Amino acid sequence: QKNQVSAMGKALWHQVTTVVILRQNMRQTNISTEDKSFRDMLENMRWKDCNSADISFLKSCIVTNRSDDADLDHPRFKNKSIITHLNAKKDQINLMGSERFAIETGQELSHFYSLDWKTEQVTQKTNMPRKFRPTQIGTTKRRTKTTFEEKEQSILWDLRHSASEHHPGRLSLCKGMPVMIKRNYATECGVTNGAEAVVVDWTSTCIPGTKKHVLDNLFVELVNPQKPVKLDGLPENVVPIPRYKLPVTCVLPNGVRVNISRDQVCVLPNFAMTDYASQGRTRHDNPIDLSSCQNHLSYYTCLSRGTSAAGTLLLSDFDEEKITRGASAELKEEYRALEMLDDISKTRYIGNL
User: Fold this and answer.
1) Model's pTM, two decimal places?
2) pLDDT per residue over 171-198, tens digit each?
3) Which residues of 87-118 are buried (b: 16+ CB within 10 A; e: fewer)?
């Protein structure tokens, strides 16, 4: 009997979790009429099969159509990161958001510059016969030793962040500003790539021969960490982010790619993020720019981060054709394969395969 009860429990548990994982977005759990419409719209959008009711619901979320007059100045959405598709848009929103935040808080932006070196390829000499010589590994090595001329360095500093692999040449900050950490510094403390934080303070030094400053450490307060973090001498959830040297490929305005070694604190302003970076997040307040999204999958990623209809704010209109007319045969086949794998896993788990 115990074995039978155990088997039944496992089967029930697996059926429930299967529904949760594959067939239901558990972020949207409210029970209002609007939230039900929100869930129905997301399920239809997953199949690129939104109907007229879904379109009407989405239009009601546009900032100019909202019944509660909520916009980006509303306390609920103030300084919340906007999800957009293009890195260029993200960079521009972050630039504008940083300037606005400094003005509204009565501060001046402090600009911190990276330390950059040229990256040279130096061929290693070897006496090993060619047929035994490695084709890639060990034949070359990188040597970083040369600094840039003033004009070249200025161009590298002025590049938008996404043109330097999100390792910024110039980082403009002020206290209280929202930022996003862009590297796994200390996973045990929640200081990970994609973690959101707020600037508390910093230490910096002046670059010799210039009036420009470089960050040594940036102190940030983590936003909603999974567990409290307490380091000696610092307030709760406040952690230091040191400079970090990385190889970076910069894309110049003329399209030329330059390989450099860059030493900079790995954070970015967090007034906007891409739909790619938003994956896996749960957002109670979810402002979205859908204007540059390429397809229904991008729409779905942006919208499904939100937990409620009231917390979803669309900043622009959208293209109805991208979320109607049905998914492609390839995508339907992929969904079908996932359902089959789900059934196989469930049958194997309860011992009936």
Assistant:
1) 0.84
2) 999 999 999 999 999 999 899 999 999 9
3) bebbbebbbebbeebbeeeeeeebebbbebbe
